[in-house]
Write a structure and sequence with these properties.
- The complex is a heterodimer of chains A (116) and B (113).
- Chain A is mainly β and 116 residues long.
- Chain A is built from no helices and twelve strands.
- In chain A, a hairpin with a 6-residue loop joins β5 and β6.
- The radius of gyration of chain A is 14 Å and the shape is globular.
- Chain B is mostly beta strands.
- In chain B, the strands form two sheets. In chain B, strands 2, 4, 5, 6, 9, 10 and 11 form a seven-stranded mixed beta sheet that branches. In chain B, strands 1-3-8-7 form a four-stranded antiparallel beta sheet, with no helix packed on it.
- In chain B, 38% of the residues are buried.
- The chains are: A mainly beta (116), B mainly beta (113).
Chain lengths: 116, 113
């Protein structure tokens, strides 16, 4: 089974509108971290937001918020007031915390295009 | 504070050669992880280092190796290069090995001919 599933290969959103990028994860470990990264065409991975498995509140970072539904193993990214510069690939990732070290898993990504 | 730096940024090699990539983490960060990104396989975890020790390794052949120095800088080596090793290699650093955020470098684009 896939550890991280992103079911939307491509998304379009009108400038200034909000958009939700879906992410579901699969783990049996109680301790894990969830991340969202943005990758523009330049290739650099830009950290957006982080949610720990024990965090009670949904994470927020400026225009980014993470809709964390632990029972459903869902960690959707919400971008409010989309801007043209938000056009990029977005990756959901999970970090499993293990005694032997960490394992990292990335989804296949969602390509977001913001339309003027 | 300077971000994660990776050198070189671009590299062209031929099959059978070996290559060494370098990563300097953010100052104070002691954990370094490496990833391979290809169009076909996406982002795959290679290994993680902390305090000069490899903590974990992804599912890659032994041709892929790495190390971390006392100043937390890390190197990744690929021996006997294959065409399929052509990829963007990303390095990420974090303060420690708990749940802290990872910050990525710009990557090294390797082309194997």
């Amino acid at each position: 089974a896939q550890k991280i599933t992103q079911t939307q290969p491509g998304m379009f959103v009108q400038e200034k509108e909000a958009v939700t990028l879906d992410c579901t994860y699969d783990t049996s470990d109680p301790s894990y971290g969830l991340f969202w990264y943005k990758q523009p065409s330049s290739g650099e991975m830009i950290f957006l937001i982080y949610q720990g498995s024990y965090d009670q509140q949904n994470a927020t970072e400026g225009r980014y918020s993470l809709n964390f539904q632990k029972a459903r193993k869902s960690a959707n990214l919400v971008i409010s007031a989309s801007q043209l510069g938000d056009s990029a690939m977005y990756f959901c990732a999970m970090r499993e915390i293990m005694n032997t070290g960490n394992q990292f898993y990335f989804g296949t990504g969602t390509s977001l295009t913001v339309i003027p | 504070k300077a971000g994660v730096t990776q050198t070189p940024r671009y590299l062209i090699k031929t099959r059978g050669q070996q290559v060494t990539l370098s990563c300097s983490p953010i100052s104070g960060h002691r954990s370094v992880s490496w990833y391979q990104q290809t169009p076909g396989q996406g982002l795959q975890f290679l290994f993680e280092y902390f305090s000069e020790t490899q903590r974990n390794k992804g599912n890659f052949p032994g041709r892929f190796s790495g190390r971390q120095f006392s100043n937390s800088r890390s190197e990744m080596n690929v021996s006997t290069l294959e065409l399929g090793d052509s990829a963007l290699y990303l390095c990420a650093s974090s303060l420690s090995v708990s749940q802290e955020t990872q910050y990525f470098g710009p990557g090294t684009r390797l082309l194997v001919l």
